[in-house]
Write a structure and sequence with these properties.
alpha+beta, two-stranded antiparallel sheet, 1 helix, Amphi-Trp domain-containing protein, Amphi-Trp_dom
Length: about 70
């Protein structure tokens, strides 16, 4: 198996693009299928066994909500 290089990027999307990605994710969750997404030129395959969390952070000058999807490669 090929070891993938480490990666830590953040990619911005328009409201319409983000909504479309969330809809595709929701469809995958409901049907029990893996989720595929392309981020900054790399296709990522999220397995059905992934874990989903929502994180909320607050500081003095901003708030943030992160929808997180985590899994271990097998």
């Amino acid at each position: 198996m090929t070891v993938k290089p480490k990666r830590d990027i953040e990619k911005g999307y328009t409201n319409a693009e983000f909504a479309a990605k969330l809809r595709r994710l929701a469809d995958s969750l409901e049907t029990g299928d893996k989720f595929e997404i392309q981020i900054a030129g790399e296709r990522v395959y999220v397995p059905v066994r992934a874990e989903y969390t929502v994180e909320h952070e607050r500081s003095d000058d901003e708030e943030e909500i992160e929808f997180q999807i985590k899994w271990s490669p097998k």
